[in-house]
User: What shape does this take?
Amino acid sequence: MALNITGDTAADELLGNDAFALLTGMLLDQQVPMESAFAGPEKIRQRIGTIDPAAIADYDPEAFVDVFKQTPAVHRFPGSMAGRVQALAVAVRDEWGDDASAIWTQGDPDGAEVLRRLKALPGFGEQKAKIFLALLGKQLGLKASGWREAAGHYGEDGVYRSVADIVDPESLVRVRATKQAAKAAAKDAKS
Assistant: This one.
């Protein structure tokens, strides 16, 4: 299925065609703009020739950090995020047979089980796992029963809360506005 997250055709095609690329984009989605985070897997693929979890898991860690540092950088925190991507790759290789999509397809899991599996991945806490589950359901046709409930408010229809709701440039603007309003409200609450 075609995704429209980054504004870059090659990066979006990779996200739509490769489950590990999409999972990696979600992992990178912190402290950088969403488009930049989700463009990261394409930068990795261009620089090392693959986005295969086994290849990334086996890549020399120092050299992988250098891959992240190349201009334009994969992430603003190249050392820590390169390590997190490699840890995710090891988990997918060792626990899911090098197939990231098995996390949400193997054994026909329900939404609660997919959420549990996502939260067990390195770098995926409760919120990130719920957003990714919503992305799978809203844009990639995940059929797991109860996925909306498991994704919480990120699974709701007609909202613009996260990357799960970005389908075009207009929805990106709406998601960004929602996030800015939430940050402002949190800041006001602290005052």
About this structure: DSSP finds eleven helices and no strands in the chain. The mean pLDDT is 95.
